[in-house]
Write a structure and sequence with these properties.
The protein has two domains: 4-121, Arc Repressor Mutant, subunit A, CATH 1.10.10; 128-206, Glutaredoxin. It has nine helices and seven strands, in the order ααβααββααβαβαββα. The chain has helices at residues 4-14, 19-28, 35-42, 46-58, 79-92, 117-127, 139-155, 167-171, 196-206; strands at residues 33-34, 62-67, 70-75, 129-134, 159-164, 180-183, 186-190. The radius of gyration is 20 Å and the shape is elongated. It starts with a helix and ends with a helix. 25% of the residues are buried.
């Protein structure tokens, strides 16, 4: 008997064992949504929602697309909803779950179709993380940049990653050695390449 297929199924179903992921999928029934819309609808912090989005995306259940400052998420295959609905029928005998609350104070274009893009983008820009990699462009600097980009992508957060290579600009951050990592103007690491888990912690803490 080939157990590998059962392991694959088990791994897939494990994605649905978190209630917030199911809530996210319920929101996405109405169409694509950005992180700020999910945050405004569900009431959880962006960092927490981003972690759940990353899990759903890694499992191939959702995908994202960028439109200016906004990153939108949508379900890849609508059969996912049938799978969730079948589970609910089995558990609740067809009883419908309460309706999700309306998004409160969400700045995204979906919730504010009459508001100019300039206003929405201005608020999104103020919320965006700014991550800077300090260094001359050496191999370690490039490796640090690659890890930072991987973390941002896996967490599905909106962030601008900048390379600071000029010596006088690097010295403004009072670091003794490079590569250095700065998140929202706070030096979090210098003189080494931090691990992916460390950078993940720093990024989520800054949200």
């Amino acid at each position: 008997m080939n157990i590998s297929e059962y392991k694959l199924q088990s791994k897939f179903f494990k994605v649905f064992t978190h209630p917030v992921r199911l809530l996210i999928l319920d929101v996405l029934r109405e169409g694509e949504a950005c992180v700020c819309h999910l945050e405004a609808t569900l009431g959880y912090r962006q960092a927490y929602i981003s972690q759940q989005l990353a899990t759903l995306r890694e499992a191939g259940i959702i995908r994202d697309r960028r439109d200016g400052w906004n990153v939108y998420y949508q379900v890849v295959d609508l059969q996912i909803f049938k799978l969730v609905d079948d589970a609910r029928t089995l558990l609740f005998d067809g009883e419908k779950l309460p309706l999700l609350p309306k998004a409160q104070h969400c700045p995204c274009p979906k919730c504010n179709p009459g508001v100019g893009e300039q206003i929405t983008n201005s608020k999104k820009e103020s919320q965006m993380l700014v991550i800077k990699v300090l260094g001359s462009g050496c191999p370690n600097c490039k490796k640090l940049e690659a890890i930072a980009r991987k973390v941002v992508d896996s967490l599905a957060v909106e962030a601008a990653i900048e390379k600071v290579t000029q010596y006088d600009e690097i010295m403004k951050y009072d670091v003794l050695s490079t590569p250095g990592l700065v998140i929202n103007e706070k030096v979090v690491s210098s003189g080494r390449i931090p691990s992916e888990s460390e950078i993940t912690t720093w990024v989520t803490s800054a949200l």
